[in-house]
């Protein structure tokens, strides 16, 4: 299901949806957050539907739209006869879709997000001896854990004592640019990250599609991981970080910008959600800065703050870039 756009009144929304149905475009209208939203079922029909909506907004009294409800009913009866089943084309969807925290009408069609959650849980289980076992200190990590980190400790430390974060990447192990996002270091770490991933990722994937979601997650994962690895090496440490939070903050940044500056896809972000996300972002940074570190170190574990920051900025930039192109067009 893809959103065509919004109209201010129920009459206009239902009239336009009915006109789409009469054109053999499966559509419906529903109310969301005080506005009326028109949806189409087939993604391939989205471009002509949006083009038609632009004309309808400018010429709502055009003769072609008059009697749309009757035309839609006739088209519906023809479809019923052809398929030999009762099926309405203009459907009221309120109450049928699940809701995502902070996002009314959040859809459940998010196979990529669910796959990422499943992979994260699976990796957490098979690497728990290296990530969540308090007795892991002092013994070498397992093969799976070593294969998923950005760089292996033994490979990163050169003979001259310098840290080489690209040692494994140069060997062709390019998956390491992404796979640290699947490593989590305690139960709350993975639970919190999966909630964030689903809350924002499900809404994005439903609106933009699975291919866009794959590209977005890969971009956020690679850039946030590389940023964290570089910053860690600058501090003289071997990068051994993990977690989906860089991607999560990237998804949050994307939704926040869309909700603020681009109403076409009807994202909604509650002020409470925004406040909590930015409060945690700030507290994690203060945790490493005296004198706050003395107060927060016991409550907050070590955090990959650079991954958070890079993910947030990249997600926001990806969301805002089309607006810049639109302004210059």
Task: Describe the overall structure.
This protein has about 325 residues and is mainly alpha-helical. It folds into 2 domains: about 1-85, Alpha-Beta Plaits, CATH 3.30.70.2350; about 110-329, Rhomboid-like (Rhomboid-like fold), CATH 1.20.1540. It has helices at about 10-20, 45-60, 70-85, 110-125, 130, 145-150, 155, 165-170, 185-210, 210-235, 245-260, 270-285, 290-295, 305-329; strands at about 1-5, 25-30, 35-40. Strands 1-3-2 form a 3-stranded antiparallel β-sheet. A hairpin with a 2-residue loop joins strand 2 (about 25-30) and strand 3. Helix 1 (about 10-20) crosses helix 3. The longest helix has 25 residues, at about 210-235. The chain is elongated, with a radius of gyration of 24 Å. Residues about 85-105 have low confidence and may be disordered.
Highlighted features:
329 residues; 3-stranded antiparallel beta sheet; 2 domains; Rhomboid-like fold; elongated; mainly alpha; Alpha-Beta Plaits; single chain; 56% helix
Q: What is the beta-strand fraction?
A: 5-15%
Main sheet: strand order: 1-3-2
| Uncertain ranges | 84-107
What is the rounded Rg?
Answer: 24 Å
Within CATH, the superfamily of the largest domain carries the name Rhomboid-like
Distance between the termini: 28 Å
Q: Under the CATH scheme, which class of the largest domain? A: Mainly Alpha
Summarize the structure.
By secondary structure, this protein is mostly helical. It has helices at residues 10-22, 46-58, 68-83, 111-126, 128-131, 143-148, 153-156, 167-170, 187-208, 210-234, 245-261, 271-286, 292-296, 305-328, and strands at 2-7, 27-32, 35-40.
């Amino acid at each position: 299901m893809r959103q065509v756009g919004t109209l201010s009144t129920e009459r206009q929304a239902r009239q336009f949806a009915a006109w789409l149905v009469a054109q053999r475009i499966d559509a419906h209208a529903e109310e969301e957050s005080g506005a009326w939203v028109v949806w189409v079922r087939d993604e391939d029909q989205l471009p002509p539907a949006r083009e038609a909506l632009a004309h309808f907004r400018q010429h709502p009294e055009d003769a072609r739209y008059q009697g749309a409800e009757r035309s839609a009913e006739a088209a519906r009866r023809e479809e019923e006869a052809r398929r030999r089943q009762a099926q309405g084309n203009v459907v009221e969807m309120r109450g049928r879709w699940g809701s995502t925290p902070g996002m009314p009408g959040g859809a459940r069609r998010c196979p990529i997000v669910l796959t990422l959650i499943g992979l994260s849980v699976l990796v957490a289980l098979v690497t728990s001896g290296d990530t969540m076992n308090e007795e892991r200190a002092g013994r070498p990590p397992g093969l799976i854990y070593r294969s998923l980190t950005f760089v292996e400790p033994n490979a990163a430390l050169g003979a001259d004592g310098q840290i080489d974060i690209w040692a494994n990447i140069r060997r062709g192990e390019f998956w390491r640019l992404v796979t640290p996002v699947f490593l989590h270091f305690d139960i709350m770490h993975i639970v919190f990250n999966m909630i964030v991933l689903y809350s924002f990722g499900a809404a994005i994937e439903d609106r933009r599609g699975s291919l866009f979601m794959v590209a977005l997650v890969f971009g956020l994962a690679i850039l946030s991981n590389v940023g964290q690895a570089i910053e860690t090496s600058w501090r003289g440490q071997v990068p051994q970080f993990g977690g989906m939070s860089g991607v999560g903050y990237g998804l949050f940044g994307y939704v926040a910008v869309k909700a603020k500056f681009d109403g076409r896809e009807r994202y909604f972000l509650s002020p409470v959600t925004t406040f909590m996300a930015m409060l945690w972002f700030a507290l994690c940074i203060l945790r490493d800065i005296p004198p706050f570190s003395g107060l927060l170190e016991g409550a907050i574990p070590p955090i990959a703050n650079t991954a958070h920051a890079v993910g947030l900025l990249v997600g926001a930039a990806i969301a805002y870039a089309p607006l810049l192109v639109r302004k210059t067009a």
